[in-house]
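Notes from the pairing session

We agreed to fold both candidates in a single pass and log them together. This is the raw record for the first candidate, unedited. Please don't reformat it; downstream parsing expects exactly this layout.

Candidate A
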Amino acid sequence: MLRRFANRTNDDGRAAKAATLTHEAPAVDEGAMPKAMSSLAAGMSITGNIVCDGPMQVFGRIEGDVRAGEIEIGDGAEVEGNITAQDLTIRGHVKGTIRAVRVRLLGNGKVDGDIFHRALSIAEPARFEGSSRPVENPMEVVIETRVEPVETRPSGPQLRSIFKPSLAPIGDVAHDTSAA
């Protein structure tokens, strides 16, 4: 808001100042969208995965994975699922794997699960049960490829060469019908 003063004269000729209030909206870039805070209120519950482009606050319950730039899990809130964020503040309860650049456990915050992070702080009386792994890029999803041993069974020509090396292939066997 801007205040503009204008000079006026009273009936007796003295100068009086009158304040005029004006509001000038700031210039808005047509291509830029204002960042809004997404919020899940207390008493609300969501089952499913959430992807949020901007910041979000959780005061209710989520069963599913959550991904956002900045997440605040409020006091009394519950998240059962994996969380991926740039900046994560936890005052509620999280059960799952966390991947975030900065993780802060504050107040009554509780985490049951693993935390992959660049920076982690835990303030009393917050609780953490799991493993903490500092990594350079915690938001990068690591896909573990496990190679299971494959049991190979010999087939066709391989079987013949294992058990009877001199056994001719079935198609090449000559049938002797004169003995019958």
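Candidate B (folded immediately after A)
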Amino acid sequence: MRLALLAIALSLASLASGQDGDLAAPVWVAQKAMTTAFRFSVLTTAIDDSLAPVGLRMYDRRTGRLVQEVLGIDGLDVRRRADGLVRLVDANFDGHPDIELAIDRGGVGPNNTSHFYLYSPATQRFEIKAMLSALTQVRINRDRTISAFARGGCCNPVADLLRPAVRTLAAAVQMAA
């Protein structure tokens, strides 16, 4: 009986402290990817053998000053190195590096997702673009097209190829966001 009460007390103490055994305390991890102007850090929580990105910071690479922070990212199950969650792409083909942040590996299938933050030279900030972030398995291709793939079951593959006009893609992405 005392052993059972002790186990209940320990369980309640664990719940009260926010620790459930599967989640690790969030930690900021410096990313390998960086631009000439920015370096990045991702707030991650470990879940079993994968990561859950929950925050993103952008720092001025020259001064080290924090210039932008995004919190509340609903990252799920990413199986990548902790320092490799940010990938730089030119998602709107404007010549400025944009951020692709891995947020979910897609479960058993290939439906991995990322959040895309496009750099705005006017504001000098990265802005999330909902249209790109809603697609699965996005590829920014060298021929200035964007591919997206998904699987809705074992026999239901889906593939899309966006062929935007180079001059209008930035406007199209902004309108869709």
